[in-house]
Write a structure and sequence with these properties.
This protein is of the alpha/beta class. The chain folds into three domains: 218 residues, FAD/NAD(P)-binding domain, CATH 3.50.50; 131 residues, D-Amino Acid Oxidase, Chain A, domain 2 (2-Layer Sandwich); 121 residues, Glutaredoxin (3-Layer(aba) Sandwich), CATH 3.40.30.120. The chain is built from 13 helices and 22 strands. The strands form four sheets. Strands 1, 2, 7, 8, 9, 10, 16 and 17 form an eight-stranded mixed sheet that branches. Strands 5-4-12-13-14-11-15-18 form an eight-stranded mixed sheet, with helices on both faces. Strand 9 and strand 10 form a beta hairpin. It is globular, with a radius of gyration of 25 Å.
C-alpha cells in the first residue's frame, strides 16, 4: 500500500461544533440539491442566498429534467413532487417548424407526452418537464422538512479566506449591510456563471460566447389555436432564410411561454427592440391578445472553469460551467456535480475518505461539462444553419419541396437535442484516480442511444428486483458490494471485515436476478455511494484493504 492517508482531522472525533461542515453559496437548484443530499448523508450545511426567499416568480429558466436527474430526484425523495408539479402530463413534446403561425408549415418533430411514453428499459425513470419556478420550491421545501440545512436568505458571501483546516467567509446582510464571519470545513460555490467565489480564488473561465439573445415571458391563452399546424406542441421554431430567428417554448404547459429572439454577437438595449412587433411577426395576426411579463437579454455561452477546486473551495453548477440551453443540459449537468460532490465531502468529513477523493471531483466532472457543452453548442449550430432555407418564405412547388426536405432534415437531426438518453446516462468516470479499470472497452458514447454497462467508472445498470424495486434503489448511502452467486457472497465477507476496520460504510448484497448477472458480467461488483461502479471482478483481490483505500482516495495501488 502506498500513500495511505486517513484524514483524522475531519473525523467525527475532531469536528468542531463551531465550524459548519459545508457552506453553500447559492440557493439555486444545484445548491439546494447538494444540501438535501448532504443532509441525507448526515452532513449539515448552511446555504447563503442573496435573494430574500425562494420565489415562485415566473422565470424563463431550465425545465427539462433528464433521466439521470429524475433518478437523482428519486434518491432525494422529491420524485413524486416533480411528477405532480402541475406540468401537464398529456402535452405532446412536439416541436413545430414554421415561418410564422400564419405562414408556411415546414415540419414537425413528434415526441409523445409523459402520459403516452414508456419508461426506457435502461432506467426506472423517464425525462420530465418541471419548470424551475416549480422545481426550486420543491427542493427548498424538502430541505426545510429535512432540517439538516440552514438557509440564510438576503445574505451574500463577500470574502472567503482559507487555511489548512477551514474556510472563513464574510457574510453580508444585504438589507442592513452588517457583516458576520462564519467558518466552514468546505465551501461550495453554486453562485452562478458570474461566480464571486470562483473569481475570489482566481480560477479561470475559458470558452466561447455564442451571441446575445433577447427573451420575453409572454402570456397567451390557447396559443395553439392560432395556427393550422395540428395539435399543440411544446415549442415552435420560426425559420427564415437567415436560419431560426425566434422560438416559442412553453414554460408551464399552459399559457406561459418563453419567446426568444435569436440575437447577434453584440449586446443591444432591449428598449430599442420592437419586441411586440417581432411577436406579431411570429404570430402573424394583429388580433391575438398577449401580455409581455418580463424581458431580458442574456449571453449564450459555452464556458468551463479551469479548475473545479481551490483548496477547500469547490465549484458546482453554473459557477463551473455554462452551455447553450439547446437541449436543456446545463441544469442536469449541475445536478450531476452535486451527486458526485456530496458523497465525497461526506467521506472526508467522516474520516473514511482521503485527499484523493477531493482531487477526483474535478477529474470526474469537468470532462462531463465539456462533453455536454460541446453537444449543446452543436445543437445550437443546427438552429443557425442557413443551408436549404433560401426559398422557405416563397410559394410554389420548388419552395414547397424545400420546406418538405428541410422539415424532414430538422426532425431527423434535432431529435437527439430533445431525446438524449445517451448524454444523460452515458457519461463515465473511467479515467478517475479512484476507479479501478478492468480493461474492458467502453460502449460508444452517443447522445441519443445508451447501452448499459457495469464497466468501472460507469453508472451502475438498472434492473428490476423481485420485490419490485429498481436496483438503483439499493444504492445511494455507503458502498454496496453486489455478489452474484454464493461463492461471491462468501468472498464478500472479506470486504465487510476490511470495511469495518476502515470505518467505511459498506453492505454486501447477494443478487438472485439473472437479469442483474447478465448486465453486471462479474461475480463481484463494488458500487460507490453515488451509484457509479468503482470495481468489479470474478475473483477476490489480493489486498481488499488496499482496494478499498484506493476507491476512497486514501491510497494508490
Amino acid at each position: 500500500m502506498t500513500n495511505t492517508h486517513m484524514p483524522e482531522s475531519q473525523s467525527d472525533n475532531h469536528r468542531n461544533s463551531d465550524v459548519i461542515d459545508v457552506i453553500i453559496s447559492g440557493a439555486g437548484p444545484v445548491g439546494l440539491a447538494l444540501a438535501l443530499d448532504l443532509g441525507r448523508r448526515g452532513v449539515r450545511s448552511t446555504i447563503i442566498e442573496k435573494k430574500p426567499e425562494i420565489s415562485t416568480e415566473i422565470l424563463a429558466k431550465a425545465s427539462v429534467l433528464d433521466e439521470r436527474t429524475m433518478e437523482y430526484c428519486r434518491l432525494l425523495g422529491v420524485r413524486d413532487a416533480v411528477v405532480n408539479s402541475g406540468y401537464p402530463a398529456d402535452l405532446p413534446a412536439d416541436t413545430v417548424y414554421c415561418t410564422s403561425f400564419d405562414g408556411h408549415y415546414i415540419g414537425r418533430l413528434e415526441m409523445p407526452s409523459a402520459l403516452e411514453r414508456e419508461v426506457p428499459e435502461q432506467t426506472c425513470e423517464m425525462l420530465r418537464r418541471c419548470p424551475q419556478m416549480l422545481f426550486d420550491p420543491i427542493l427548498a421545501r424538502a430541505v426545510k422538512e429535512q432540517g439538516m440545512a440552514t438557509v440564510r436568505y438576503s445574505s451574500e458571501v463577500v470574502s472567503a479566506e482559507q487555511d489548512a483546516d477551514s474556510v472563513t467567509c464574510a457574510v453580508k446582510n444585504v438589507d442592513t449591510g452588517s457583516i458576520e464571519y462564519i467558518h466552514g470545513r468546505f465551501v461550495v460555490a453554486c453562485d452562478g456563471a458570474s461566480s464571486f467565489l470562483r473569481k475570489t480564488v482566481d480560477i479561470g473561465f475559458q470558452g466561447q460566447d455564442l451571441g446575445f439573445a433577447l427573451s420575453a415571458i409572454v402570456r397567451i391563452q390557447d396559443l395553439h389555436s392560432y395556427h393550422n399546424f395540428g395539435a399543440a406542441a411544446e415549442r415552435y421554431l420560426f425559420i427564415g432564410p437567415e436560419g431560426t430567428w425566434a422560438n416559442f417554448t412553453t414554460i408551464d404547459g399552459h399559457d406561459l411561454w418563453r419567446f426568444t429572439v435569436a440575437g447577434s454577437g453584440e449586446r443591444v438595449d432591449p428598449d430599442t427592440v420592437d419586441l411586440k412587433g417581432i411577436l406579431r411577426k411570429a404570430i402573424g395576426r394583429e388580433d391575438v391578445p398577449f401580455e409581455v411579463l418580463r424581458v431580458n437579454q442574456w449571453r449564450r455561452s459555452q464556458y468551463t472553469a479551469d479548475k473545479y477546486r481551490s483548496g477547500r473551495i469547490f465549484l458546482a453548477g453554473d459557477s463551473a460551467h455554462t452551455m447553450s440551453p439547446t437541449g436543456g443540459h446545463g441544469l442536469n449537468t449541475g445536478l450531476g456535480d452535486a451527486s458526485d460532490l456530496s458523497w465525497i465531502l461526506q467521506a472526508v468529513l467522516e474520516g473514511w475518505g482521503g485527499p484523493g477523493l477531493l482531487d477526483a471531483y474535478e477529474i470526474e466532472r469537468r470532462p462531463v461539462a465539456v462533453r455536454n457543452g460541446v453537444l449543446s453548442s452543436k445543437n445550437f449550430g443546427l438552429w443557425k444553419d442557413r443551408e436549404g432555407r433560401d426559398k422557405v418564405l416563397e410559394s410554389g412547388p420548388v419552395a414547397d419541396e424545400q420546406r418538405r426536405v428541410l422539415g424532414t432534415t430538422l426532425a431527423l437531426h434535432m431529435r437527439q437535442e430533445f431525446q438524449s438518453i445517451g448524454l444523460a446516462l452515458g457519461f463515465n468516470y473511467a479515467h478517475s484516480p479512484v476507479v479501478i479499470n478492468d480493461g474492458s472497452p467502453a460502449p460508444e458514447d452517443q447522445p441519443d442511444m445508451y447501452t448499459q454497462t457495469a464497466r468501472p467508472g460507469h453508472r451502475a445498470p438498472h434492473f428490476w428486483l423481485e420485490d419490485g424495486r429498481s436496483s438503483l434503489d439499493i444504492f445511494g448511502q455507503g458502498f454496496v458490494l453486489l455478489a452474484f452467486d454464493t461463492e461471491a457472497e462468501t468472498m464478500g465477507e472479506s470486504f465487510k471485515s476490511a470495511a469495518s476496520a476502515l470505518r467505511l460504510p459498506l453492505q454486501c448484497l447477494k443478487i438472485k436476478e439473472p437479469s442483474g448477472a447478465q448486465l453486471y458480467q462479474r461475480k463481484l461488483v463494488l458500487i460507490r455511494p453515488d451509484g457509479m461502479v468503482a470495481w468489479r471482478s470474478d475473483m477476490l483481490p489480493d489486498n481488499v484493504t488496499l482496494l478499498l483505500c484506493h476507491v476512497t482516495g486514501c491510497a494508490s495501488m
